[in-house]
Each structure stands twice: as structure tokens, then as C-alpha cells.
Design a protein that fits this description.
The chain has three domains: about 60 residues, no CATH class; about 100 residues, Tetrahydropterin Synthase, Chain A; about 90 residues, no CATH class. About 55% of the residues lie in helices and about 20% in strands. The protein is of the alpha+beta class. Strands 6, 7, 8 and 9 form a four-stranded antiparallel beta sheet that branches. A three-stranded antiparallel beta sheet has the order 3-2-5. Keywords: Membrane, Transmembrane, Transmembrane helix. This is SPFH/Band 7/PHB domain protein.
């Protein structure tokens, strides 16, 4: 190859290198810090940019997007002298690329150390219970302190989150026992309230049932009494309309008396005076000679080991006596009104 060809090749390679070093394409959301002969010259914005070859140099490439830094768990002592492990997550953006490059050697290491010290200051003024229940407050205080401290570095801390707070194992066991006891207490309270409510509902149901049952029994008794009254009125009207004779009334009265003495516990049967009058009526009807003696006798007591009236039989006997007297009055023509029903 001749010397002219070699020279042209060298010139072409040099021009390519110069062109490559002269043109820079800056991506979106990035800034390039340019130094000229070791001194800050300018900051390149996104897009194609021209540089002076072999004079201008890219000092740093700065990402302007919001970035997330996850720091390892940090040991922190609370106000009640309990050690906890706190894991934090930091969100920040670079607002001044020049300060981020020239104001601090490594801004990430600086942010990490600043986050650790600020976290210890904030949590150190709180006890363990408040630390566990005040994450929002801790996040806000950390974000405010870090944003103020990192402003001179060209950074803006947008948010700080506490990802986890881990107390000692013994404290966790005690907290779990406390929470279990609290849950048991709440369950017992709910169970007692349910039992109380169930008892109240059962008592109200029994009360309503008793009231309805009493109303039903009352209505049934009223209807039963009304029916019995109507039946007595009908029978009495029929008897009054038929105008029965003394013989017929006496015969019916004697047929009713054995029903009164029915019962295995009846020992004594007190015969009313109306029986003697009825027997006297029969004697007069059939010509018997003992009618006068029967009318003079007021009451005959028949002792029998097989007959003894109880309270119900005595009441029935009294009702029969009254009915017999009323029938006798009707036969003698002293009244035309219905006798009152026995109580």
C-alpha cells in the first residue's frame, strides 16, 4: 500500500473519532455534566449536542427520574430502652445535577447515613408502643428532616416509608399474649351480649305467648259461657212453652239425682228436701200413703261406704237443688223468668 493511501486512511480514522467525540445524544430525563479542561463548563439537556473534541469531557451522567433506595434494617433504641430493627425505604429525585455531582462525593452514601441518624433521633423520643402505632408521624418527620438536609446536595426527598419495625423476640411474645387476651375478652363480651339478647327475646316470646294463651282461654270461656247460657235459655223456653205437669217434673228430677252421686270417692250423700217433696208428689200421683211423712222430713243423710261427695259433687248437688227449687216454683206458677246460671 502506498504512503498516500495510508495517510488518507489515518485521516479518515481521525475524522471519525473527532466526529464521534463531538456529537453527544442525551436521553430523556438525563443530564450530562460537561467539563472543559477539568473545569465545569455546562450541563447538557436531553437531545443531540455538540462538544469540542479532546477539550470537553463528560464528567457525570445524572438520572433525573425519581429513584428508590432500600436501606438495610437499622438498630434503633426507643425512649423506653428497647432495641428495634427498622427497615426504611427512601424516595428522592435530583433537582440540581451540578450540586449532586460537586456538592458531595457520594450522595447515596450521604442520604443513607443521614436517614439512619435522623431515624434514631425521631424514634429515640418515642416509646415502643407509640413507635409501632405512629408510622405516619415518623414518615412525615423523616421526610421533612431529610428534605431540609439534602437540599444543598441538589436532592429532594419526596417520601420516606418504614417498611418494617421488628421489636425483640420477648417483646413480640408479650404483645402476642396481650393481643390474644384482648381478643378473648372481646369474644367473652360478645358471647355474654348474645346470651343476654337471647334471654331477653325468649322472655319476650314467653310473655307474648302467655298473653295470647290467656286471651284465647278468656275468649273460649266467654264463648262457652255464652253457649251454655243460650242452651239453658232454649231449654227453659221449651219447658215453659210445653207447660209440664208436676208429675213430669218430678220424674225428670228423680232421673237426674243418680248422676249427682256418681263417683268412686263418694261416701256420704245428703238428700235435699226437694227429694222428699218429689217423692211426696209421686206418692200423691200414685196414691201412696207416706206422702205427708215425706213432706215433713227436711233432710235425710244416707251413710254409705261407697258414696262420699267431693267438692265438685257438692257443687253439682247444690246446682241440682237450686234447679229443683226453680222447677217447683215454675210448677206452682210463682215465676216465669229464667233462673240465673250457677256460678
Amino acid at each position: 500500500m502506498d504512503p498516500i493511501g495510508i495517510l488518507l486512511l489515518i485521516v479518515a480514522i481521525f475524522l471519525i473519532i473527532v466526529l464521534f467525540r463531538s456529537i453527544k445524544i442525551v436521553p430523556q430525563q438525563w443530564n450530562y455534566i460537561i467539563e472543559r479542561l477539568g473545569k465545569y463548563r455546562r450541563t447538557l439537556e436531553p437531545g443531540p449536542r455538540l462538544l469540542v473534541p479532546f477539550v470537553d469531557n463528560v464528567r457525570a451522567k445524572v438520572d433525573l427520574r425519581e429513584r428508590v433506595v432500600n436501606f438495610p434494617p437499622q438498630p434503633v433504641i426507643t425512649a423506653d430502652n428497647l432495641g428495634v430493627q427498622i427497615d426504611t425505604v427512601l424516595y428522592y429525585i435530583i433537582t440540581k445535577p451540578t450540586d449532586a455531582v460537586y456538592a458531595i462525593d457520594d450522595y447515596l452514601a450521604g442520604v443513607e447515613q443521614l436517614t439512619t441518624t435522623t431515624l434514631r433521633n425521631v424514634v429515640g423520643s418515642m416509646d415502643l408502643e407509640k413507635t409501632l402505632t405512629s408510622r405516619e408521624e415518623i414518615n412525615a418527620r423523616l421526610a421533612a428532616e431529610l428534605d431540609k438536609a439534602t437540599d444543598k446536595w441538589g436532592l429532594k426527598v419526596t417520601r420516606v416509608e418504614l417498611r418494617s419495625i421488628e421489636p425483640p423476640l420477648s417483646i413480640r411474645d408479650a404483645m402476642e399474649k396481650q393481643m390474644r387476651a384482648e381478643r378473648d375478652r372481646r369474644a367473652a363480651i360478645l358471647n355474654a351480649e348474645g346470651t343476654k339478647r337471647s334471654s331477653i327475646l325468649m322472655a319476650e316470646g314467653e310473655q307474648q305467648s302467655a298473653v295470647l294463651r290467656a286471651k284465647g282461654e278468656r275468649d273460649a270461656a266467654v264463648l262457652r259461657a255464652d253457649g251454655e247460657a243460650k242452651a239453658i235459655q232454649t231449654v227453659f223456653a221449651a219447658i215453659h212453652k210445653a207447660k209440664p205437669t208436676d208429675r213430669l217434673l218430678t220424674y225428670q228430677y228423680l232421673q237426674t239425682l243418680p248422676t249427682i252421686a256418681q263417683g268412686t270417692a263418694n261416701k256420704v250423700w245428703v238428700v235435699p228436701a226437694e227429694l222428699t217433696k218429689a217423692l211426696g208428689g209421686i206418692g200423691n200421683a200414685f196414691g201412696g200413703s207416706d206422702a205427708a211423712a215425706a213432706e215433713e222430713e227436711e233432710e235425710v243423710e244416707i251413710d254409705s261406704s261407697a258414696l262420699e261427695l267431693d267438692a265438685a259433687a257438692a257443687a253439682a248437688l247444690e246446682a241440682a237443688q237450686q234447679a229443683a227449687r226453680d222447677v217447683q216454683d215454675i210448677g206452682e206458677g210463682r215465676t216465669n223468668e229464667l233462673p240465673p246460671a250457677p256460678a
